[in-house]
Amino acid sequence: MKTKLMLAVVVLGLIAVLWAALPYLLPTSIALGPCGRDWMSPSSWIPRASPTRSESWSIGRTKGKICYGSPSTRGRTVFGELVRWGQLWRAGANEPTRIFVNGPVDFAGIPLQAGRYSIYVLPQPQRWQVFVNDSTYHWGNAISKSVRLREIGSAQLAVSSTAGHVEQLTFRWQPVDDQHGSLVLEWEATRVEIPLAQL
Fold first, then answer.
1. Average pLDDT for residues 110-133, to the nearest whole number?
2. Are 179 and 196 in contact (CB under 8 A)?
3. What span, in angstroms and rounded, lies between the C-alpha atoms of 104 and 102?
4. For the ranges 4-18, 51-65, 181-195, which has the lowest average pLDDT?
5. How far apart are CA 52 and CA 137, in angstroms?
6. Structural domain boundaries in the chain
7. Do the beta carbons of residue 102 and residue 65 sit within 8 Å?
């Protein structure tokens, strides 16, 4: 009886891991499903302070999705303290912030083909630099030299202020027309727009 129970637990665990990994194993044309966890990390097996969130968008015939950990300020000063100026940051929590696109797109001036990518940023008080990378399996802030060698491109982004306090980091899609829009990051009192366009 014990052996059967253990086997059932192992099988269910493998099914859960496979389900979570599907977006990273399937072609991106059909992988715009749930945001998976890195099950090699111990934090994936316990409740997280920063939940995983996602935002989807369409530009022309291309569909896209961003998956990110969404931390809260919880009374902390975020930019300049928790997130230090001039240090690379995953633009979220937990796993790297990941982008999925099932067709070509211009991401802040960086041409991307259908695929899966990670993004991270170099925040400064007046401007941020965003980097697009084809490494999606590294842990979020483990942005090593080997990870950086896989960068596809980077772009400068303007920083503005939010209308009020934003407790939880949020990415939201702001369409302009059928072929243009922006991913808007808002947290604390900071607002950064990442322009996207159809290629």
1. 96
2. no
3. 7
4. 4-18
5. 16
6. 48-198
7. no
